[in-house]
Design goal:
- With 350 residues, the protein is an alpha/beta fold.
- It has 2 domains: 236 residues, Type I PLP-dependent aspartate aminotransferase-like (Major domain) (Aspartate Aminotransferase, domain 2, 3-Layer(aba) Sandwich), CATH 3.40.640; 97 residues, Aspartate Aminotransferase, domain 1, CATH 3.90.1150.10.
- The protein is 42% helix and 17% strand.
- A 7-stranded mixed beta sheet has the order 2-8-7-6-5-3-4, with helices on both faces. A 4-stranded antiparallel beta sheet has the order 9-10-13-12. Strands 1-11 form a two-stranded parallel ribbon.
- Strand 5, helix 7 and strand 6 form a beta-alpha-beta unit.
- Helix 1 packs across helix 11.
- It is globular and about 60 Å long.
- It starts with a strand and ends with a helix.
Length: 350
């Protein structure tokens, strides 16, 4: 029996129809700027997000790091959420690649407090201070449980940022999940930002790639930075075709992932010895934990890791780290997979 893989929505595999679209894609040489399928994808995503131009890149990390370099110079800084991907999961790239410092601000839900943002903006008058150039959000917010950051909060912070001539970037790794969950059009979610990255290889199910969007001038500079970072691709229309197929066929179905995530979370919450906050299940991410008094939590880090290993032996893969447990629904997990995962977890901890 096949494994139920709930580690991430990055594990999705191209469908047969997506593979056919990839095989049939007209291609050119994207470094020369003449791959027609890449051009089509970039234009499609730019229009979807209400921006003038786009740039296809191999990964969401590269899209975010190109944006950091566009908006800040070495020795300058960006204000970010303390749990965001740019700060925690991109290998220190902002410092290593662009010499940019990240100033993290904490909250439980992925929001940034406008007053706190204001208090942490540094200008150029005092040479002791790092000059602030950028504010970055993540939506949906992975480390905060897949929560959708309220648009009202983003607009409030954007107002502060604009008043101080700061740029705004959105890490839209799961932006289409946010759109489906809220009913707000992607362009409305993207509107406050100068640049936005959209990942195609998570819930949308493409095998590779993200698109960074912004002004034509910014994307021209971004293309040079992509080359500098080693992201220039040749006949990448085959990959871009997967992104176009995903946008055509695999956006509306994200609602199914959200429903299955809620179903999974509700079932987990009913298992004695397991804790799951249902109020935080808004999209396709489900965070849960063993209750503090569960026997497996005698050594909490070991208990979580052992539970993940035991689940794998029963045919269920989760993101089981020493400090948290996470399950992510996606197009390769059906209702039967959810039932199997719940049954395995119940058998191991009840």
């Amino acid at each position: 029996m096949a494994m139920v893989d709930l580690r991430s929505d990055t594990v999705t595999r191209p469908t047969a129809a997506m593979r056919a679209a990839m095989a049939d894609a007209p291609v050119g040489d994207d470094v020369f700027g003449d791959d027609p399928t890449v051009i089509a994808l970039e234009a499609r995503v730019a229009a979807l997000l209400g921006k003038a131009a786009g740039l296809f890149v191999p990964s969401g990390v590269m899209a975010n790091q190109i944006a950091v370099r566009l908006h800040a110079r070495p020795g300058e800084e960006a204000i970010v959420h303390a749990g965001c991907h740019i700060y925690n999961y991109e290998g220190g790239a902002a410092a290593a690649l662009s010499g940019v410092t990240l100033r993290p601000l904490a909250s439980a839900d992925g929001t940034l407090n406008p007053a706190e943002v204001f208090a942490n903006i540094h200008g150029s008058a005092d040479p002791h201070l790092t000059v602030t150039r950028l504010v970055a959000f993540e939506n949906t917010h992975n480390a905060c449980g897949g929560l959708v950051v309220p648009q009202a909060n983003i607009l409030a912070v954007a107002s502060v940022a604009r008043a101080h001539a700061l740029a705004l970037h959105l890490d839209g790794a799961r932006l289409m999940n946010a759109s489906v969950a809220t009913g707000l059009p992607p362009a409305e979610l993207a509107a406050p930002f100068d640049t936005v990255s959209l990942c195609l290889s998570k819930g949308l199910g493409a095998p590779v790639g993200s698109v960074l969007v912004g002004t034509k001038e910014a994307m021209a500079r971004a293309r040079r930075t992509r080359k500098l970072f080693g992201g220039g691709m040749r006949q990448s229309g085959m990959l871009a075709a997967a992104g176009l197929y995903a946008l055509d066929h695999q956006v509306a179905r994200l609602f199914e992932d959200h429903k299955r995530a809620w179903r999974l979370a509700a079932a987990i919450a009913q298992i004695p010895g397991v804790v799951c906050d249902l109020d935080k299940v808004q999209t396709n991410l489900v965070f849960f934990d063993l209750a503090p008094d569960h026997p497996r939590m005698a050594v909490p880090t070991d208990g979580r890791l052992k539970l993940a290993a035991d689940l794998q032996e029963r045919g269920v893969l989760i993101a089981g780290g020493p400090y948290r447990l996470r399950a992510v629904t996606h197009l390769d997990v059906d209702d039967d997979g959810i039932d199997r995962a719940v049954a395995a977890l119940r058998a191991l901890v009840s």
